[in-house]
Amino acid sequence: MKIFVPLDSAAKALGADEVADALAREAKARGLDIQIIRNGTRGMVWLEPLVEIDTPQGRIGYGNVTVDQVADLLDGRLNSLGRVEDIDWFARQTRLTFARCGVIDPLDLDDYAANGGLVGLRRALGMTGPQIVQEVTDSGLRGRGGAGFPTGIKWKTVAEAEAPQKYIVCNADEGDSGTFADRMIIEGDPFSLIEGMAIAGLGVSATRGYVYLRSEYPDAIAILTQAVLIARQRGLLGPDVLGSGRAFDMEVRTGAGAYVCGEETSLLNSLEGKRGTVRAKPPLPALQGFLGQPTVVNNVISLATVPVIFEKGAQHYADFGLGRSRGTVTLQIAGNVKRGGLFETAFGMTLGEVVNDIGGGTASGRPVKAVQVGGPLGAYMPVSKFDTPMGYEEFDRQGGLIGHAGLVVFDDSADMLRMARFAMEFCAVESCGKCTPCRIGAVRGVETIDRIAQGDAAAIPLLTDLCETMKDGSLCALGGFTPFPVMSALTHFPDDFATLQEAAE
Fold first, then answer.
1. Closest C-alpha to 71, from 27, 107, 36
2. Rounded to whole angstroms, how far apart are CA atoms 27 and 32?
């Protein structure tokens, strides 16, 4: 009997390790022949620990399993959720990037290959660099780290650059609040990232790669480090990738916890051993990146999606989505919500559907007040904007951004003035200090919002002017995007900015 117990950090935080240990003890005491497989998560965090038993009918799931329920589980007395693939929340997804996550043992390369892995790399090995780049371009894949920049254009720029050495750098410094897709795919399907980086290397003639992984993810670091060793031992990495005579190797580097290192040029400085400060652009990293050489810098989800494109074909991937937002988006639903987790679907689902239908509304049972989309620098979207489709341009037209597709839900008890203050305070704390609008502007922003809270209505226009300065003058998105949450809170929730004097009157 095969029993699957997730090793994902979220599942472990909810007791998955203890459940796995209890299953092993109980099976030994009963003399049962069972195999406990530690898989990644299916993304339904609201059901973790989600234990699955392999049966002739498929994998049967048991949600929120505790140590006390292990005996009942083995006796068949515990109510099941039925086949995991039939659970409505899961069945409604379009799983491309996360197709294997939660299905396989993340460190079993044979299991990975048996579920479609390496098909894309083998196909890419039969293509020229320009053909590989064109395939990515035709798929419509855009950056999943925040900016939504077309991946094919970035690869083409690096591919056409003349240099003795080129690099692939994976940005795994997932620092946005309410985001966990990078961590989930690394912990649950690390070979997809390795395969994607190898394909990228073949496409742009880069022979070296680095994954810049945040130190706050110890499980992801351990799993990816082990996966790289296995890949190298099995010939997936090294001087002769899968016997092709073409070289690509990579290593994992750990960050030190600076939020600004999620910005690509700051990340590159840190990767080089320098202080993590933002570089002025131009030159672009695609031309002068890591160690001054042409460098592809892509997010984890972008690179982990590449194998799917080469396995299924560019057109298959491009057939999903909305407008210029092609393929799928990995929605990370968090905050005050009943059903939190990772939901992969084609671009186009409305924000209201995601929050109310998929997420189930608030966990508190109170009305939804706002949803922050895109991390701590994302706009607060009111209920009146819930008909906005999940798409880059569609969100931009509404004054928002999708970013890394993290959604944090707030009910009607949230004080939006305090949330705006938090955005400015966050920027002040995390600023690298390179540019004045961010370094000084965020500090003045906190002070200005405090003045508003204390009854100074004249400070509201000052806050607006300050946000314009930060938006137009900051070197990177940290200072440039901080006005999004501040101004959206002020615009959509003006009552929360009513001064004490106005309230008294």
1. 27
2. 5
Q: What is the pLDDT of residues 154-176, one digit of tens each?
A: 999 999 999 999 999 999 999 88
Could you report how far apart the first and last alpha carbons of the chain are, in Å?
70
Tell me, yes or no, whether 90 lies in a domain: no
Quickly count: other Cβ atoms within 10 Å of residue 281's Cβ.
13
361 in helix, strand or coil? coil
* Residue 492 backbone phi and psi in degrees, to 5: -90, -15
**Domain around 491:** 416-504
Residues 289 and 145 in one domain: yes
Residue 91 in domain: no
Residues 52, 38: Cα–Cα separation, whole Å? 10
Taking CB atoms within 8 Å and a gap of at least 24, the contacts of 448-451 are 449/417, 449/420, 449/421, 449/424, 449/486, 450/421
Any idea what the CATH number is for the domain that residue 289 is in? Answer: 3.40.50.11540
- Considering its fold, how many domains does the chain have in total? 4
Residues sharing a CB contact under 8 Å with residue 273, sequence separation 6 or more, in sequence order: none
pLDDT value at 454 more than 70: yes
Token pair of 50 as six digits: 């989600």
Q: Which residues pair with 394 in a beta bridge?
A: none
Provide the β-strand partners of residue 83.
Answer: 60
CATH number of the domain residue 55 falls in: 3.40.30.10
The tokens of 310 are what? 């080469």
Q: How do residues 394-449 score in pLDDT, each as one tens digit? A: 999 998 889 899 999 999 999 999 999 999 999 999 898 889 999 999 999 999 99
Pair (276, 347) in one structural domain? no
Token pair in block for residue 372: 């922050």
CB 204 within 8 Å of CB 159: yes
pTM: predicted TM-score of the whole model, two decimal places:
0.94
**Is residue 93 in a domain?**
no
Helix axes 483-492, 416-430, angle to 10 degrees: 170
Question: Does residue 89 lie within any of the structural domains?
Answer: no
The angle, 0 to 180 degrees and rounded to 10, between the axes of the packed helices 181-188 and 300-312 is 60
Pair (278, 134) in one structural domain: yes
Domain boundary (290, 318, 346) is at: 318
State which of 263, 298, 318 marks the end of a domain: 318
